[in-house]
Design brief:
By secondary structure, the protein is an alpha/beta fold. Helix content is about 45%, strand content about 25%. It contains 5 helices and 7 strands, in the order E-H-E-H-E-E-H-E-H-E-E-H. Strands 1, 2, 3, 4, 5, 6 and 7 form a 7-stranded mixed β-sheet that branches. Helix 1 crosses helix 5.
Length: about 150
């Protein structure tokens, strides 16, 4: 059974709501195992055991969270050649702008040679019902690609 790894940094109620919507979206896809790991505790073994990854982070001062950056720093060299073509998706939440965070994630995933299988989800402000539905759709889309 394919395994989807969700690596997230969820420091706020807004991001917790998005993470729950992600779980619901993956649950819509049969025959996919979900593994959810906080970015500070996820590592190379988690990534190497996954068939795809969904990344979630707040936008902090124009960049991804330090926790997600730590994840990338931890897995970069151990997984560089072993994860080429890994399907991935990403969601970013910010108060007013997520573009810097998205750019930095795209730069790193590009260097890792991962394959983005769904459009990045950029959320600003308190997530409403449509935002949470978009998070479900993102998660289901990534899960279906495995």
């Amino acid at each position: 059974m394919p395994r989807l790894l969700v690596v997230h940094h969820t420091p706020s109620p807004s991001l917790q709501a998005v993470l729950e919507a992600v779980r619901e979206g993956v649950a819509l896809v049969e025959e996919v195992e979900l593994e959810v790991r906080p970015a500070l505790s996820a590592g190379a073994a988690d990534l190497l055991a996954a068939d795809g990854v969904l990344l979630g982070t707040p936008a902090n001062i124009g960049y991804m969270s330090g926790a997600l950056k730590h994840f990338f720093d931890t897995v970069y060299y151990p997984c560089l050649d072993a994860t080429v073509g890994l399907p991935y998706g990403v969601y970013v939440h910010g108060n007013d702008d997520t573009s810097g965070a998205l750019r930095s994630i795209e730069r790193i995933t590009g260097a890792l040679r991962w394959k983005q299988v769904a459009a990045a989800l950029s959320l600003t402000g308190a997530p409403g019902p449509a935002d949470l539905e978009s998070a479900r759709e993102l998660a289901a889309t990534v899960a279906v690609q495995l």
